[in-house]
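During the no-cost extension, the postdoctoral fellow (Dr. R.K.) reprocessed legacy sequence entries with the updated structure-token encoder. One reprocessed record is reproduced below for audit purposes.
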Amino acid sequence: MTFKSTFVLDKELSNAGSFGVDKAVVDSDGNILKQGQRVRTEVGILLTNEFETEMFENIAIKNRTSFYTDYINSFGNVDIDWEVMFNFKVNQYVKASLGSHLKYDNDVKTIVASDVENEFDIEGAKIQWKQILGIGVVVDF
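Re-encoded structure tokens follow.
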């Protein structure tokens, strides 16, 4: 069992209901009657796995995966966080890393432009993917 919190400190994002928080309550003129929620808390189950090994000489891999589902709000919708990192030792002075980080959170919805001007539609959650490339010089003093 675990506790998960999402903090949305930007007033504009919290009023829009970004990242799964409750959005602001507005009247017909667009005046805010109640500010958007800034914190979302969840209680659920978290499964994690971490694995690190040297695949070949001077090439190491690190894999970290976690799966989370909320007990109260949406049990069965699984949030995924998966990171794979390859570390290469080119020589005594140069190291490199190549990685991939994939995230999926069902509470983070996508906002797209509507056919009506200055209006937006909310679509479902999408996969977020980050690629990492790093090259470094190692100097010992």
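Helices lie at 11-16. Residues 11-16 form the longest helix (6 residues). The remaining legacy entries will be reprocessed before the final report is submitted.
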